[in-house]
Amino acid sequence: MTVLKQVFNPYLPLNEYIPDGEPHVFGDRVYIFGSHDRAGGETFCELGYVVYSADIHDLTDWRCEGTIYSAGQDPHHTETVKGAGERKYLYAPDVAQGPDGRYYLYYCLSAFAGKGGFDGPVSVAVCDTPAGKYEYYGDVHYADGRTMLDFIPFDPGVINDDGHIYLYYGWALPVKPAKSRMVDKIYRKIMHGMFPKKTMEEIYSSAPGIMGANMVELEDDMLTVKQPPKRIIPCEMDAKGTSFEGHAFFEGSSIRKVNGMYYLIYSSSVNHELCYAVSQYPDRGFEYGGVIISNGDIGVNGRKSKDRVAATGNNHGSIEQINGIWYIFYHRHTHLTSNSRQGCAEKIRIEKDGSIRQVCMTSCGLNRGPLAARGTYPASIACNLTDGRMPHVGNGKCRKKKPCIVEENGKQYITGIHNHTLIGYKYFE
Which pLDDT tens digit goes with each residue over 43-65? Predict the structure, then answer.
């Protein structure tokens, strides 16, 4: 009888920061494709793509496959963005196997702090194996050779659906334009800085505007768009009166097909949660399904935002069935910043009616059950860390003294502990 080791959240080495996790089972191994942050980083995604994998029968033993792709391999990396430098930051990727058996990596390239990452193409690299050395292949384009730049080509998610290649992407500012003249001025300044080539009319338009979730079908070459993109989920400005009101699309498109239905996993307009939408069609008819997880457990048992059990921030991930069990992969925030994110995972259940109930964050994650109540554990596997008034770091950094997980000299620890700090661990047998 083989005795498996235990695994806990985060499930990768504690000095590894791979957010935006896209789990995929290829053969008898599960692979995690994601961005790559740096501990205490100054911006998102400072490092090249690194992949980890594990045998589907033993999720306690994750193997580093090494760096599979670097920004310098993309010909756009020498382009500069005013005030933000070169496009050298690789944002949230996804991978699908093509009709030719090769593996195609979809990604976006950004300058510092996301600038320029919203007006460039969705680019593609290719490899003969899931976690080998990928090579630049091209940019997603139309049949006439024009690069596809419709809407906002950002955070691509891709699926090979029985030979049909569907690409999902998009972004939206997670707030509505404010009635206040001053706040509206700030809003416009932000949007103009992000989209210097777009007019405010294009940005604000609801017919549709540039913001929201979109999809296209690709040819067998994995690059050429068959038909113009379709809007499938609205942004916050356009969600009133729809099932998405209050949980409109923000970013992080990820697509899965479960029991003949299409599940779009996405980060919602409230930023900290991963939601899902469902349709029987890949290109239309999506309806809001619910929240799968919040990285502050907001919504669990009616918990309000002010009572979040950890610092919250942007979220991105997906679901995957591994050895018969479904999981949600997401990320947590360390260093009180959005630039040092670590991958976590929780078991979920897809009900007979197709619904997914929200699950809470735990320390045991991918473990087969609760952790053994003996021995020692790293303090930083705490799934709850709060002083009762934790911040939402969003896409930024909190300067206040708050309890948080940090890394120094390759080791993680909890700092900022003071009166009324709760450090919680779930679950032990």
Answer: 999 999 999 999 999 999 999 99
Complete domains list, the chain, with CATH: 22-424 (2.115.10.20)
∠ CA 409-415-417 to the nearest 5 degrees? Answer: 165
SS3 assignment, position 30:
strand
Q: Looking at this protein, which amino acid is placed at residue 155?
A: D
Q: What is the pLDDT of residues 259-284, one digit of tens each?
A: 999 999 999 999 999 999 999 999 99
CA distance 279 to 75: 37
The verdict on whether 55 is a catalytic residue reads no
Determine whether 150 is an active site residue: no
The length of the chain, given as a count of residues: 429
pLDDT given for residue 33 in this prediction: 98
Buried b (16+ CB within 10 A) or exposed e, 352-372: eeeebebbbbbbbbbbeeebe
Q: CA 394, 399, 404, 405 torsion: positive or negative?
A: positive
Of 74, 119, 155, 251, the active-site residue reads: 251
